[in-house]
Input
Amino acid sequence: MKLTDLHLDCRHFRGDRPCRPHKQHGVECPGCPHYDPVRTRALIVKLAAAGDVLRSTSILPALHAAHPGLHVTWVTAAGAVPLLEGNRLIDRVIAFRGALPVELAAETFDLVINLDAAPDSCALATAARGAARKGFGLDGRGRPTPLHAEAESWYLMGLSDARKKENQQSYPDIMLGILGLRGPAAPPQLELSASELAAGRAFYARAELRGRRVVGLNTGAGGRWEHKKWTFEGYAELIRRLLAEGHGVVLLGGPEEAERNRALRELSPPGVVDAGTDNSLRHFAAIVDGLDAMVTGDTLAMHIAMARAVELVVLFGPTSLPEIDVFGRGEKLVADLPCLCCYLSTCEVKPHCMESIAVDTVHGAVKRALERRAQARAPSARSGRG
Ligand code: SF4
Ligand code: SF4
Output
């Protein structure tokens, strides 16, 4: 075989090693049945936060539909890499460590997409070589700027809490609009391997929750907005009610929820299961995958549950309710207050937005979520806790 026989445009071609189809089937380029020509090479820049990264994957199905033969390279913050790994709509994931990744220095893309007006995202998207650019970049003075008219609205929203509050469009629809893509937007995309799903099932087997409807309570919401998470007393009462009804209850969270979840567990009747607060992102997602419903604030866990088709009950206060599309898999709860979507890290309102959402309201939404789940979930339809 000669160099000219190689299919250099094949999605599987590596250049430094045999391609995967060659390793699996012994094929060579001439006449190869696995030849998958790349027609458009896209670079997507979306660095943080993890929840934003995951929700941005909603654009991928529409992007692929618009560009047959698309090859996607996604640059993201190192901490968000696990959320993109294994995604069949992404060919390569690169961790951003503060400078133009060396892998990109020699490449030219057909399309550079930057969905974020953050300075580091814009610098990276401006430095990367691309024939066309969508979204945001840096202007001549190093300031983030929209690159075209479709990106202006989101840019202006980022400069004004009032405009953010006025917005009625969902984030996926806004992103599709920036890219000039046709909807409908898809839920976030997060794929788990067979072994990761098996580890999730093992968790439920150890917790002896088989045969019960299981509700996950994601009790925290990070530290940026104090009132993005529901009250401790609300969760404690909800746990009592759900256990009394015979449901399984799993406490979820990250390191910041360790103390809160420990206190909830100690206060609760026997039976509540603490999933721990130091799970890897992907094991956390595998545990979420086995839930029937989740109660949460506007969090990364919410986006993971959306991606894994878990029924949601989401409580909103300081952040935007219209921005979140639960794709028909849940209810969004909100207090009757004029100050919602304030984007304040804390406030003096009494009772505040989370205190104003009653246990009866949340409990009722959970019951409806479990009913929808019971109707929709054929026993063999999903690979969750089994
Ligand atoms: S999949 Fe086939 S065509 Fe593609 S690089 Fe491998 S051998 Fe060549
Ligand atoms: S101002 Fe209103 S919406 Fe914002 S945190 Fe306070 S109570 Fe919640």
Summary: The CA atoms of residues 98 and 143 lie 17 Å apart. The pocket of iron/sulfur cluster (ligand 2) is lined by residues 227, 317-318, 337, 339-340, 342, 344, 347, 349, 352-353 (CB under 6 Å). The chain is about 35% helix and 15% strand. The two ends are 50 Å apart (CA to CA).
